[in-house]
């Protein structure tokens, strides 16, 4: 009965999608538009239908990641998802999904080259992907990658080219000559620095000017950063004392990130509707029969998204 319910719901969604496409084709507009659904139904349990149609590759093709990377609220989410797929799930993608993955990655790199933001984040992503591919291409003939091996070697060369482009970026100083960060009162500077969630950003900011160097060493700043990312128990296991006998929160932070995962925070995430089991971006219309669909949505982290398709 459980499997029949999954199949029945899936068929209903397919019929609804086909009807909308037919209605769009029959309208009197001069330009015909094929509506592309930007959601996917996640079958409950492990069924033949799920193994055939509800895969990580299918979800990756359907959820419009190309548009998501243009949204600053979703950019880091997509990059983290690309990194997780590169680490262990690349072979789970179909041939089309693998091609789509590389196309999206190319758009991400081009965006970073144009706006000169998130450079370190994309460098780490490319290095992770290149390392994984080095391992996978050595297993030729074992069906670990879809497509000709020469195509993947070419893609690896492209990744190296992207890495070189990122390394050659010269950050241009803006022509704006108004108020700068260092012109703000110290309390405001410190308040802004407290909103940085990555200790490496604090270190980089401290290298800009001597005054910022002093602020970036503030013990309370690093203490809050440690308490934000890690539990009290994790912190107690990694205590480091300074020469003066105080807790060295800065050294503790960098020791902790080597031992435990940091807390992830995103402006916008993929969401799973608990009522109809449809996966989509927040604000995306989907055929939900709940009276109040917004109350049925659960936010998913990138790892939660991947775990949905492990069966």
Automatic annotation (TrEMBL):
Spans through the membrane: none
GO cellular component, one term: cytoplasm
InterPro entries tied to this protein: F-box-like_dom_sf (IPR036047), FBX25/32 (IPR040394)
Subcellular location, record wording: Cytoplasm; Nucleus
Matching CDD domains: F-box_FBXO32
Recorded superkingdom: Eukaryota
GO annotation terms (biological process): protein ubiquitination
Keyword Cytoplasm tagged: yes
Primary location class: cytoplasm
Annotated metabolic or biological route of this protein: Protein modification; protein ubiquitination
Keywords recorded for this protein, A-Z: Cytoplasm, Nucleus, Ubl conjugation pathway
Gene3D superfamilies, A to Z: 1.20.1280.50
Subunit structure of this chain's protein: Part of the SCF (SKP1-CUL1-F-box) E3 ubiquitin-protein ligase complex SCF(FBXO32) formed of CUL1, SKP1, RBX1 and FBXO32.
Function (record text): Substrate recognition component of a SCF (SKP1-CUL1-F-box protein) E3 ubiquitin-protein ligase complex which mediates the ubiquitination and subsequent proteasomal degradation of target proteins. Probably recognizes and binds to phosphorylated target proteins during skeletal muscle atrophy. Recognizes TERF1.
The name this protein goes by in its record: F-box only protein 32
């Amino acid at each position: 009965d459980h499997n029949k319910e999954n199949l029945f719901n899936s068929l209903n969604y397919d019929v609804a999608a086909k009807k909308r496409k037919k209605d769009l084709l029959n309208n009197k507009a001069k330009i015909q538009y094929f509506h592309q659904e930007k959601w996917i139904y996640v079958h409950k349990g492990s069924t033949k239908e799920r193994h055939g149609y509800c895969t990580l590759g299918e979800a990756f093709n359907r959820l419009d990641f190309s548009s998501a990377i243009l949204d600053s609220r979703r950019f880091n989410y997509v990059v983290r998802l690309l990194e997780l797929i590169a680490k262990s799930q690349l072979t789970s993608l179909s041939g089309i999904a693998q091609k789509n993955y590389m196309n999206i990655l190319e758009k991400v790199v081009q965006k970073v080259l144009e706006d000169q933001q998130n450079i370190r984040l994309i460098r780490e992503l490319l290095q992770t992907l290149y390392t994984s591919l080095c391992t996978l291409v050595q297993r030729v003939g074992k069906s670990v990658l879809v497509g000709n091996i020469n195509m993947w070697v070419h893609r690896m060369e492209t990744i190296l080219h992207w890495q070189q482009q990122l390394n050659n970026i010269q950050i241009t100083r803006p022509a704006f000559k108004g108020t700068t960060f260092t012109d703000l009162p110290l309390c405001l500077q410190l308040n802004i620095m407290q909103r940085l969630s990555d200790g490496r950003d604090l270190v980089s900011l401290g290298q800009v000017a001597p005054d910022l160097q002093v602020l970036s060493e503030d013990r309370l700043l690093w203490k809050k950063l440690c308490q934000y990312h890690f539990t009290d128990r994790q912190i107690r296991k990694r205590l480091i004392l300074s020469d003066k006998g105080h807790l060295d929160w800065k050294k503790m932070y960098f020791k902790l990130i080597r031992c435990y995962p940091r807390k992830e925070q995103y402006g916008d995430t993929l969401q799973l509707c608990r009522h109809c089991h449809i996966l989509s971006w927040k604000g995306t219309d989907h055929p939900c029969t709940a009276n109040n669909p917004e109350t049925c949505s659960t936010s998913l982290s990138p790892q939660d998204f991947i775990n949905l398709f492990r069966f």
